[in-house]
Design brief:
Length: 330
């Protein structure tokens, strides 16, 4: 592949800057939270180009969110000079579909309704390969992940352990792709993402009193902080906090220490999400190139997640304050 230059992103960067004005911002989010009714909250989304969503039931609304995100990813994929950036974003949906297939078979339920069409691999192709146990048409990392995850679940009956296996494969595939692309911005993002995932796993495992063997199974290689260092910090708050004292996750780690002592997990997890958002915010100061693309793709996913949380929360009767606790910064 010929070397792609930052200037090759000029057209896409202009498209992104125009589209960013339609994304949910703090003001629109607050208006959705404080609107008198859920219908009034949905009207805010009409300003963002969503059209009238007020007549949609929960299932139709969820389908609309997925359709919107697919349309946006497809548009970016048409314009981006290096399509592997979109491939990296779609990877999480490949692994989501793998989890759905294996777990659905284990409990004897159909998987189709829960599979995502945002993945790189068509759900029908993945399902056929899985049912036939013939993974020759799939990328090696995907094929290996399915074989090992299915074997782990069959041997142990532990779906959490299977999730750990697939999360490791997902992170390894994302990291491999970022290294292949050669984007320092994307590499920085995935390494911080792995640190966030490991911090969450450590805090949750510590709250449950899990041992070092469990932790080593749960933690992922490839981040800025090694799993071994994290495991060795178990039982020492000072040592644990020192690992993050000069990192983007300093505040999240402090909240994690509180969560281990019984504090709220939602506050801790929101701060880990915010650390990723703060990293991506750095792209605002870059006029063109790959960084704004990475940031925008993540902003699209964040927007859909925010809408889902607000609308679901409002329909469940939660207060604006309760809903805010689940929202990441924008």
């Amino acid at each position: 592949m010929a070397r792609i230059k930052d200037t090759d992103y000029l057209q896409l960067s202009a498209y992104i800057r125009a589209r960013e004005t339609k994304l949910l911002n703090r003001d629109r989010i607050e208006r959705m939270l404080e609107a008198p009714t859920t219908g009034d909250a949905l009207k805010v989304l009409e300003e963002c180009g969503w059209g009238d969503l007020s007549s949609l039931g929960p299932d139709e609304f969820e389908m609309r969110l997925g359709t919107y995100l697919k349309e946006q990813l497809d548009d970016i994929e048409e314009l981006v000079p290096d399509k592997r950036f979109v491939e990296a974003v779609r990877l999480k949906y490949d692994f989501h579909n793998i989890k759905v297939l294996i777990k659905s078979e284990a409990v004897g339920e159909p998987a189709d309704r829960l599979m995502s069409r945002l993945a790189n691999i068509e759900p029908e192709l993945l399902k056929a390969a899985y049912l036939q146990k013939d993974y020759s048409s799939l990328p090696k990392g995907i094929a290996d992940s399915i074989s090992e995850a299915a074997e782990i679940l069959a041997k142990t009956g532990d779906p959490q352990l299977m999730d750990f296996v697939l999360d490791r494969y997902y992170s390894a595939e994302f990291l491999r792709l970022a290294e292949e692309i050669g984007s320092s911005f994307l590499l920085g993002y995935i390494r911080l993402f792995i640190d966030c995932a490991n911090l969450r796993a450590f805090v949750r495992a510590s709250r449950l009193g899990k041992d070092a063997e469990f932790l080593m199974r749960a933690l992922i290689e490839g981040g800025n902080i090694s799993p071994n260092e994290l495991v060795l910090s178990a039982g020492s708050v000072e040592r644990f906090l020192s690992l993050y004292s000069s990192s983007e996750l300093c505040e999240a780690a402090e909240a994690g220490a509180e969560a281990i002592r019984g504090g709220r997990l939602t506050d801790f997890e929101r701060l880990t999400d915010n650390a990723l958002t703060d990293y991506l915010d750095g792209a605002r100061f870059i006029s063109f190139g790959e960084a704004p693309v990475v940031a925008y793709l993540n902003a699209l996913e964040g927007e859909v997640s925010t809408i889902r949380i607000i609308v679901t929360g409002r329909r469940s009767g939660l207060s604006p304050a309760d809903i805010r606790r689940h929202l990441r910064e924008v």
